[in-house]
Amino acid sequence: MIEFSHIPVMPEECMKGLALKDGGVYFDGTIGGGGHSYEILKRTSPNGRLIATDLDDNAIAAATKRLSEFAGRFQIYKSNYKNYAAVLERAGADKLDGVMLDFGVSSFQLDEESRGFSYMKNAPLDMRMDPEGDLTAEAVVNGYSEDALFRIIRDYGEEPFAKRIAGNIVAERKKGRITESGQLVSIIEKSIPAKFRHGAPFSRKTFQAIRIEVNGELDGLEDAVRGLSRRLKKGGRICVLTFHSLEDRIVKNVFKDLETDCICDKSLPVCVCGKKKELEIITKKPLTASEEELRNNTRSKSAKLRIAERVEEYI
């Protein structure tokens, strides 16, 4: 077993964005190795409190160890952040001073061969963030129809050669079950014209698409961001790190909707829709990693950070 490692992306930007304060109650929906959580607890000493979730047992163990110096000030639950309502009820918390959501896959998950996340190493096709989850990458690759595979690879991976890749997966699995990542890489390679395979990892988009499908990463994301935004106290902040354009678009649209005030026809003398502005968007354009961070952590390249502040408590 390799040591769990995950370098937090844009930690200073996230902490500044959260506008941390002593005694605040914060929620970290994807604790990973505890990098962001550590900074939250450190900068809200001595009375700040953290409630966190993750689906990965290794992440939870690593984070618990890393945060041990703050014993009594944090609670970590094995759960999806989308189950925030039940988690907060268990933790005895209602309103929050800040929410941190980091949708990145940890270095540990990418590097541990048995997890099958990486296209760089041959491994069983798994890709489950929760090892106890029912759906695996192997089940997707071997069980989904050609049309379903095409749509997943096109929509989640934004892969221009999705149709060819899906067709070749179906043709190849007729010869025998596809069980390893190396087999999938070979199929993708022959599906993409040679001139498009140079200068970039050509399997990345398809692997990303299958990972998103296996873990249901986009399912319920909009409702969770909206719901967590409404758990904020007045002046509370939500910071969301995304690593995929579809995730970022969802977050952008939720923030924009919650920032919008009355949507009545302007010809009406008074508001009848009842819609009130709930958030103030702090980042009109998403923040990205600095040149220095990109040199030290290449996995921060696709990261986008959006920040918003609650203007009135939701009743």
From TrEMBL:
<keyword id="KW-0698">rRNA processing</keyword>
<dbReference type="InterPro" id="IPR002903">
    <property type="entry name" value="RsmH"/>
</dbReference>
<keyword id="KW-0963">Cytoplasm</keyword>
<feature type="binding site">
    <location>
        <begin position="34"/>
        <end position="36"/>
    </location>
    <ligand>
        <name>S-adenosyl-L-methionine</name>
    </ligand>
</feature>
<keyword id="KW-0949">S-adenosyl-L-methionine</keyword>
<feature type="binding site">
    <location>
        <position position="109"/>
    </location>
    <ligand>
        <name>S-adenosyl-L-methionine</name>
    </ligand>
</feature>
<keyword id="KW-0489">Methyltransferase</keyword>
<dbReference type="Pfam" id="PF01795">
    <property type="entry name" value="Methyltransf_5"/>
</dbReference>
<dbReference type="GO" id="GO:0005737">
    <property type="term" value="C:cytoplasm"/>
</dbReference>
<feature type="binding site">
    <location>
        <position position="81"/>
    </location>
    <ligand>
        <name>S-adenosyl-L-methionine</name>
    </ligand>
</feature>
<feature type="binding site">
    <location>
        <position position="54"/>
    </location>
    <ligand>
        <name>S-adenosyl-L-methionine</name>
    </ligand>
</feature>
<dbReference type="GO" id="GO:0070475">
    <property type="term" value="P:rRNA base methylation"/>
</dbReference>
<feature type="binding site">
    <location>
        <position position="102"/>
    </location>
    <ligand>
        <name>S-adenosyl-L-methionine</name>
    </ligand>
</feature>
<dbReference type="InterPro" id="IPR023397">
    <property type="entry name" value="SAM-dep_MeTrfase_MraW_recog"/>
</dbReference>
<keyword id="KW-0808">Transferase</keyword>
<dbReference type="InterPro" id="IPR029063">
    <property type="entry name" value="SAM-dependent_MTases_sf"/>
</dbReference>
<protein>
    <recommendedName>
        <fullName>Ribosomal RNA small subunit methyltransferase H</fullName>
        <ecNumber>2.1.1.199</ecNumber>
    </recommendedName>
</protein>
<comment type="function">
    <text>Specifically methylates the N4 position of cytidine in position 1402 (C1402) of 16S rRNA.</text>
</comment>
<comment type="similarity">
    <text>Belongs to the methyltransferase superfamily. RsmH family.</text>
</comment>
<dbReference type="GO" id="GO:0071424">
    <property type="term" value="F:rRNA (cytosine-N4-)-methyltransferase activity"/>
</dbReference>
